[in-house]
Amino acid sequence: MTPSPIGAPIRPSPIRKVLVLGGGTAGWMTAAALSKVLGGQVEVVLIESEQIGTIGVGEATIPPILTFNAMLGIDEREFMRATRATFKLGIEFRDWTRIGDRYIHPFGSFGLDIEALKFHQVWRKVRDQVGPIEDFNLAAVAARQNRFAMPDPDPAKVLSSLKYAFHFDAGLYARFLRGFAEARGATRVEGKVRDVALRGEDGFIQSVTLEDGRVFEADLFIDCTGFRALLIGQTLGGTYVDWSHWLPNDRAVALPCDTGGDGLTPYTRATADKAGWRWRIPLQHRTGNGYVYSSAHIGDDQALDSLLAGLDGPAQADPNFLRFQPGRRDRAWIKNCVAIGLSSGFLEPLESTSIHLIQAAITKLLALFPDTSFDPLEIDEYNRLTAQQVELVRDFIILHFKATERSDTPYWDYLRTMEIPESLARKIDLFAGRGRLFQSDYDLFAEPSWIAVLMGQGIVPRQYDALVDSLPQAALVQRLQRMSALIGQTAQAMPSHQVFIARYCAAEAAANTPVSRPA
């Protein structure tokens, strides 16, 4: 801190050095953003060890990642080639309400509001005459046909309503961002931490010491050490809020395989199983698979057998088993340490929120970037906003498990009958009555997402907004029929997802990778 003249207030110093502990997706997203936005003003150092494996969290994303890429100035084609990426228009859910059911949670909106009346209210009145609500979402219709095209910038065109995200190789993504960050001044240090030193006067982190004796000091420390939470948990004693009574899945097994089956689908698939659910994520060079499950309801060997039985093609690696506890840190920012990624908490990857929550943490950190005074009010605000956002996401994920008719296993019996947070119960009841939805500013999932999952899992409003009766029914039916026909025609005119990938962003290595087809 710079000395001040006698009688003058002491001004806090700006942050000069940030130390990011841990690499992987969280570490390198953080380093990339800080080096881009604060480059030249703040020294960014990232310490990681090749001896410590990363979880590789998140191979599927949601549309806000386009905002993150735009902030960094990343070229989309270059990024997609480097990470063997494909496009994502939503998530297909199979067997969630009952075995044999399927629906898509697509990106983008359903239809168009009519005279200030919500589209889903209008659709509810005439649904028997116009078809399922998915027919009014371009991403859902295109996903069902395995088609993709870029959104049209003209808001008058149906194609302007399309929203998308990506599937990519998380390891390659971290490598790509490492190159980006290092090109902008970030420094990578190889090593494992032996000790963390605290300042005596206030308990702030002063330095970390590596096993080889090197000592690294910083003003601000970012904990990206995953489930270990070396700084925020082990050192600063941040407690953990356990949500396993609502989200009992505490294990996962992941396994990549050759591409086969439905090929390069422009959507993630989540298939409900006896004691959890299985994911399928198609990349250019392989398909990512996993089974997220409850160890109280199924053993590891049984879970692996179930996963292997559903693979599209031959496995490309040994299975990777993970253990986790759903929940969050009571505070993601303590003193001069911010936890980002798995060190701040974990919500199972059902709605591809892992990478977005990293992105959201980085965005809030930049908006509340401190000086060396570390204003407690700003730290409290960061923690308040973080808790609010994560709890809203938690409720959305719980909805998928609660809104089910399945009773075929003890696992689904428990989920169907469990008590849920009052905030979610109220939202379900409001929608089930008359289709009412009210959003928080910090709700990651907007109204169309709630509509997709609520209705997809059998919660259709018993009534509709009475104001809809002011509109002539015959005219409404004709209008909606024209709308769905136009959406269908727009989707039909798109190229296949595989053809679009080949033209737009085919990775050279992936282009030469043989594709396994089922017999």
Polypeptide structure, described:
With 519 residues, the chain is an alpha+beta fold. The protein is built from 16 helices and 21 strands. It has helices at 24-37, 65-72, 76-83, 119-130, 138-144, 170-183, 230-235, 300-309, 354-367, 376-402, 410-417, 422-434, 447-456, 473-492, 497-504, 508-511; strands at 17-21, 43-48, 86-88, 90-94, 102-106, 165-167, 187-190, 193-198, 205-210, 215-217, 220-223, 240-242, 251-257, 268-273, 276-282, 287-293, 320-323, 327-329, 333-334, 337-339, 345-346. It has a 7-stranded mixed beta sheet with strand order 5-4-14-15-16-13-17. The chain has a 6-stranded mixed beta sheet with strand order 7-2-1-11-20-19. Helix 1 (24-37) runs parallel beside helix 9 (354-367). It is globular. It starts with 16 loop residues before the first strand and ends in an 8-residue tail after the last helix. 48% of the residues are buried. Mean pLDDT is 93; it is low at 511-519.
The CATH topology of the domain at 17-59 and 169-245 and 326-374 is given as FAD/NAD(P)-binding domain
Shape: globular
Largest sheet, strands/sense/barrel: 7 strands, mixed
Count of individual helical segments:
16
What is the level-2 CATH architecture name of the domain at 17-59 and 169-245 and 326-374? 3-Layer(bba) Sandwich
Give the termini separation.
70 Å
Structural class: alpha+beta
Question: Main sheet: which strands, in order across?
Answer: 5-4-14-15-16-13-17
Determine the CATH superfamily of the domain at 17-59 and 169-245 and 326-374: FAD/NAD(P)-binding domain
Q: In CATH, what is the class of the domain at 17-59 and 169-245 and 326-374?
A: Alpha Beta
